[in-house]
Amino acid sequence: FSLPLSLLCSHFHSYSIYLLSCFLSFALYDHAYPADELMPLTCRGRVRGLEPSRGDVDDALGKYVHTHTQTHKEGERLLNKTEEFEEAVKRVLKDVRLDNDIVVSVFETNIRVLGGLLGGHSMAVMLKERGERMLWYQDELLNMAKDLGIRLLPAFNTSSGLPYPRVNLRHGVQGPETRTGTETDTCTACAGTIILEFAALSRFTGDPIFEAHARRALDFLWEKRQRNSNLVGTTINIHSGEWVRRDSGVGAGIDSYYEYLLKAYVLLGDDQFLQRFNVHYASIMKYISQPPLLLDVHIHKPLLPARTWMDSLLAFFPGLQVLKGDIRPAIETHEMLYQVTKKHNFLPEAFTTDFRVHWAQHPLRPEFAESTYFLYKATRDPYYLEVGRTVLENLNRFARVPCGFAAMKDVRTGSHEDRMDSFFLAEMFKYLFLLFAEEDDLPFDVEDYVFTTEAHLLPLSLSTALEELDDSNFEWTCPNTRLLFADPAYPQNFREPIRSAVDKSCPRPNLPRAVAAEDGMRFMQEMMELSSQQQKEQLPPRAVQIISHPFFGRVVLTAGPAQFGMDLSKSSLGVRGFVTVAEPYAGCSELSNAEFVAGRIALLQRGQCMFAEKARNIQKAGAIGGIVIDDNEGSSSDTAPLFQMAGDGRSTDDVTLPLLFLFHKEGNILLEALKEHREVEVLLSEKARDRAKTTKNISHMPSSCKQGDLDLGELEKGQNLSILWPGYFFYTYDCFVVFIALLFK
């Protein structure tokens, strides 16, 4: 990061364009499609009604191939992957059905599914107009979006115009068959986060009914604001307009209401939205903002705090402040959030004013990455690239599991939840990709679009007010940050006190910036591998067989193959040799212990660089093979699908040695054996060999090992009871191994 951005980006220019695509396709088709979501721990799709209910969380699922509908179309267009984009559209048209007898959240369905369909439509039209692809397209996605919009309209049939929180996609809200329509309350954000999608739908289709309903809901919320404080509460009665919860903040329950007021002005050009936003914003900065904190207050007594903790959804607010043009408080709040992230690896779902965990969950929310992107966009401060690197690194280290990325059940313990929400793909990696990408990486100008709250792209051409603003509106525009920060050290001056406040007792040494950039690049490269291996023909598993004393071939570890290097299926003998740990363990640079690796099979840790790079480095050191061990603690071939290692997008013909992959549990068996016996010989092969053949040529085998069977009466004298494989126990006595599980089968 000490280098100019253009030079920094050139390090991974050929890879960064694929980053989003890697995650958009990762595991979904193999394990979840056409379910709404992927369950990354159990490697299957989440189908509502077949899995235990999670309460309101499941209201986002409507059996409409949710994750694919929300994420794939725009992402692949953003990456200029036009063929994949076209295939994604065809999948939606073929597999998505909206006439489902199911109750869904109006809010979630609007921002996720309707927004995804509209964003996909705008991308399809662009491609067709350019004559690149999609020449067959006749507004099919738009027609589907209108169908969905019509199915949501019954929810707005209230005296106030505020929508019911839920609607039955087939039956609406009236009648017993709907199983809904009895609710009386909704959150402010739920009613106030409709305008972008509904207005876009009206302007795309020419039918004003959708925009009219969204505007009516916003008008009612504006009228119900507390007139003295100009703040809104968190929950409102949809019939009477009475505030049910009168606490007010910028986080959960209100957040995207403020976001959509400002963005509605940006998208639609209606000054009324901006005027309302500015009134609210002045009150937020007067009562709620206590830099760097954002604390809820009571709408009737705004000087009285409503709680002493903050929720993670407020992490979007610095990005909104950037759009507003108020950069300094955006930097301050973002820095506080960054320090909390570094303290706990992720933003806890809620944390106290002294930055301790209040609610320990973290469902991989993207709001912090979103604000990081917008701050970098506004300031071009490479500090925010370092922040992005931290986000990437923590996702890789703590959330990655064999079939995707799992939500954190508890950030303190690192435990996972079998959950990967669609917003993780739709938002998180879109913003991270844009953070690191150069303008030349993008097939179109993102400045021509506004991001919805789920990062869907709606074109600014939808505006009906395109005239230039006069000078009196300057306060409504973003300032020139070069003039705002004439001294480059200025932002650092008010970041430093916040850093000290969050972490007084445990200062953390920072990695050199060049190293940080390299880590981010390598993570992206490995993610490309992780995804691309899913798209290629699946190879059968290979075997790592421990053949030296005292194992003699009885321990066989299931290994994943590589799509490059020596093909063990074409070798009758396989590759046998003693193992040694590479230094550095990641194998991402020239080995410092090359003299010990030469003629041996190198053990490597997964991560930090591409598999092909690891193979080249150990081959250069003279290794005859390599075994990559997963760094994701607890992963096992028992529960995870076969993992095969992909190349780096270039020719790998220069790699001639075999490279195999062991999950953490199996790799730990090998490492423990090496730790105990120092010299461990293994056979890398297509499948396990007969034990007699593996021990036939072991000249150093003690003579006692060549005689008779172990006297079972001596078993009680056995040393080194150890568990080397799930459910299998091995006792070693002298040089013999008794396989207890088979012996007593």
What labels describe this entry?
single chain; 745 residues; alpha+beta; 7-stranded mixed beta sheet; 3-stranded antiparallel beta sheet; 40% helix; 14% strand; disordered N terminus; disordered C terminus; calcium; 6hp_glycosidase-like_sf; EC 3.2.1.-; unfolded protein response; glycosidase
Give the proportion of residues in helices. Answer: 40-55%
Radius of gyration: 29 Å
Strand content: 5-15%
SSE-based structural type: alpha+beta
Number of helices: 26
Most strands sheet: 7 strands, mixed
Strands ordered across the widest β-sheet: 22-21-27-23-24-25-26
The best one-word shape is globular
> Whole-Å distance between the termini?
60 Å
Chain-averaged pLDDT: 80
Task: Give start-end ranges of low-pLDDT stretches.
Answer: 1-24, 64-70, 465-483, 505-537, 695-745
Q: Got a strand count?
A: 30
Transmembrane segments: 723-744
EC number: 3.2.1.-
Cofactor: Ca(2+)
Pfam family, one: PA
